[in-house]
Amino acid sequence: MPRFDAIGPLRAATTGWRAKGERVVLVPTMGALHAGHLALVAQAHALGRRVVVSIFVNPTQFGPTEDFSRYPRDVEADLALLAEAGVDAAYLPDVETMYPAGFSTRIEVTGLTEGLCGEYRPGHFAGVATVVAKLVNQVGPDIALFGEKDYQQLRVITRAMRDLDVPVEIRGVPTLREADGLALSSRNRYLTPAERALAPQLHATLSRIAGALAAGEPSAGPVAKGRAELEAAGFSVVQYLSVRDAETLAPVEEVVRPARVLAAAYLGRTRLIDNVPVVPIG
Question: Among the options 34, 37, 124, 203, which is catalytic?
Fold first, then answer.
């Protein structure tokens, strides 16, 4: 499996593929790969002839008190997984390649970034939108895939690429979960055994809220009950638990069109996020 560190050789390879009529699919990651990432790779193979996976722990999307320095990194293990999965190329730029001396541009998306994670991680989505735009420009894919676990991120990236007329199709892929419902995440390895045992309560609570909303209940009651359940289960901080329109992320009181129940909560030092769809019955 070819490994690229520089833009020029990578771009030459992907340009050559497209010149032969081969569709290129990009899966951007921050490494520490797990089965959820490999599900994205499998979907990429189903959608295109060539699959490129990028690995870059992007410093601009981490706040000053967040876990950039301790974010899990295991490049050799990641590359072995990608080779086994039949990836056509791995792209591993360094910080100097992505943000050369004098770099002073960033992409801000308004509206969709307000509230939810945007309230607690100022600057995060500007870092995400900017790095994704750079990766798409560098790789030149026809399609880029992102997991739905980071749902607000997916909506922000989709809007940024659309607004800037970037010729790429952004697709979300449903969240892959453990058997007990916990969404797969590189940060799950931070959980202690006791915390790991509690973590599935997040998805269970969101699912109960989604069921009540789909049956026609207004959001206030199920959300308040759900927050109390999470706090009673041992989540130390529930940053948000909210029902939002699936497209606009506007708050929803009564579900009459597709929506999402989204949450961010801490178990110990580990911040978990998750969401589930809500489709109104009838």
Answer: 37
Concerning whether 37 is annotated as a catalytic residue, the answer is yes
AA letter at 205: T
124-139 and 151-163 helices, crossing angle to 10°: 60
Residue 229 pLDDT grade (very low, low, confident, very high; cuts 50, 70, 90): very high
pLDDT of 6 over the 70 cut: yes
pTM: 0.96
Q: Is 115 left (phi over 0), alpha (psi -120 to 50) or beta?
A: left
DSSP 146-193: EETTSHHHHHHHHHHHHHTT-S-EEEEEPPPB-TTSPBP-GGGGGS-H
- List the Cα angle 176/180/182 in 5-degree steps: 50
All structural domains of the chain, each given as residue ranges with its CATH number in brackets, are: 3-173 (3.40.50.620), 186-278 (3.30.1300.10)
